[in-house]
Every structure is written in structure tokens, then in C-alpha cells.
Amino acid sequence: MINLISRTIGNISSLLKGLQVKSFLAVVVVGFLVLTTNVSDGPNDKGLKERVRQQVEQNDAQRPKTIGQWFKDARETEDSPGERLQKIGQQSGEAFKEFGSGYVKGAQETASDVGDSAAEAAKDVSNKVGR
Questions:
Q1: I need a labelling partner for 119 at 20 to 30 A (CA). Which of 15, 29, 66, 103 fits?
Q2: Count: domains in the chain
Q3: 114 occurs within a structural domain
Q4: What is the pLDDT of residues 28-43, one digit of tens each?
Q5: Interior angle at CA 111, CA 108 and CA 122, nearest 5
Q6: Residue at 37 is within a domain
Q7: Domain co-membership, 64 together with 104
Q8: What's the pTM?
Q9: Do 84 and 47 contact (CB within 8 A), yes or no?
């Protein structure tokens, strides 16, 4: 009985030593990867700025697209809350229409993918049953 207990303690202690070595090696490998990975400068990428600007300006909606445009629009209608509310209503309607068109397109693509997957699954099942 004493021999069993001492063997169990020995096995547990060797296991713990092995885990410490493994975790140390994992930290060393991750550190090596982090220090040697070449990361490009994102903020200095002028092409990225231009692509984002084109993506924002691609939409022909008459509503503000940036925070600066939103604040400018708010300053222009600062003295007339009725006109401001009317503009907000119109802009919200445009935004919902734009969102809805994107939602419908995404839903159609998803439904098509689900239909294709279901047809493929049915074909797989019929092939297995036919064997």
C-alpha cells in the first residue's frame, strides 16, 4: 500500500515537471513568433485610406456618411428643430432602405446555400441507402 502511494506521488510529480517544461517551451515559441513576425504599418498605408474613402463615397444616398458631415448637417439646422427632425426621418428611411436591400440580398444568398447543402445531403443519403 505504501509502495502504491509513493509510486502515485512520483507519477504526479513527474507529470507536473513535464507540464512546466511544456508551458515554458510554449511561451518561448510564442515569444519568438511575436518578435520575428514582420508587421506592416497600418496607419501609414495611404492606399487603405483611399480605398475606405471610395467605399464610403460609393453609396449615392443624400444622407451624411461621416461624423463630420453629420455634425455639419446638425449645425445647419440647429435653429429649426422641425426641419432637423424631418431630415433625420428622411435619412433614417434611406438608411433602412439601404439596410433592407442588403439584408434581402444576404438572405437570398443564404437560402441558396442552404438549398444547395440540403440537396447535396439528400444525394449523399440516397447514395448510402442505394449501396
A1: 103
A2: 2
A3: yes
A4: 888 888 888 876 665 6
A5: 150
A6: no
A7: yes
A8: 0.36
A9: no
